[in-house]
Design a protein that fits this description.
Length: about 200
């Protein structure tokens, strides 16, 4: 792609920073991953925007293609793209279709939470999550409860990313499987990449 990448403006991290391009379903996911943007010079996070009512997996490819066409990303070096999605509203067939497309592109990845993104967030404060048949509405309530007082806040939860990686990874009884069981998440695969690059003292950088 011949045009200059608009992500790299004056004052942005050095180009040696690893770029994580995230395409997700909802605003909570966007806010979480955006929080890490430019926390130090090792990492850069860019969120692919969505149009209203276009969050389903079948729109992910459309959003990615537009982002690349507009100069948002030119795959090179160790830059990676991650599709972050849930299973609460979309069929297994839709998700597997998106996964197949990701597997056909270098550095495209997919990270699924079952049933929703709140499962990943809960692992920031819980070592394991028992499957009591709770729906996503209840999990959102539970998220606020475990982070009392004050409830869920990205500023207090996101710094615990390594804790969440450890918890979610340990809870994953099928690490080779591509689709997580209920109350499990594969987002730790993405988060582990980010945490490794950030390093042990990234919050002080």
């Amino acid at each position: 792609m011949g045009q200059t990448n608009r992500l790299y403006k004056k004052g942005a991290p050095h180009r040696d920073a690893r770029l994580f391009v995230i395409v997700a379903e909802g605003e909570r996911e966007d806010a979480y991953f955006s929080w890490f943007n430019e926390k130090n010079q090792r990492i850069k996070v860019s969120i692919i925007p969505r149009e209203q009512d276009k969050s389903a997996p079948n729109f992910f490819l459309e959003r990615i293609e537009k982002f690349i066409k507009d100069g948002g990303w030119s795959p090179k070096d160790n830059d990676v793209l991650w599709c972050v999605l849930d299973v609460d509203r979309w069929s297994r067939e839709e998700i597997e279709g998106l996964r197949t497309i990701c597997e056909q592109h270098e550095n495209w990845n997919i990270a699924i939470s079952n049933p929703c993104f709140e499962v990943w967030l809960l692992y920031h404060g819980m070592e394991s999550i028992e499957d009591n048949g709770e729906n996503c509405t209840r999990l959102k309530q539970k998220l606020h409860e475990i982070f009392l007082p004050g409830g869920y806040n990205v500023d207090t939860v996101a710094p615990l990313i390594q804790v969440a990686v450890n918890h979610a990874k340990s809870a994953d009884e099928n690490p080779q499987g591509r689709f997580p069981d209920r109350m499990k998440t594969k987002i730790y695969l993405l988060a582990e990449q980010m945490a490794t690059i950030l390093g042990a003292n990234w919050g002080q950088s």
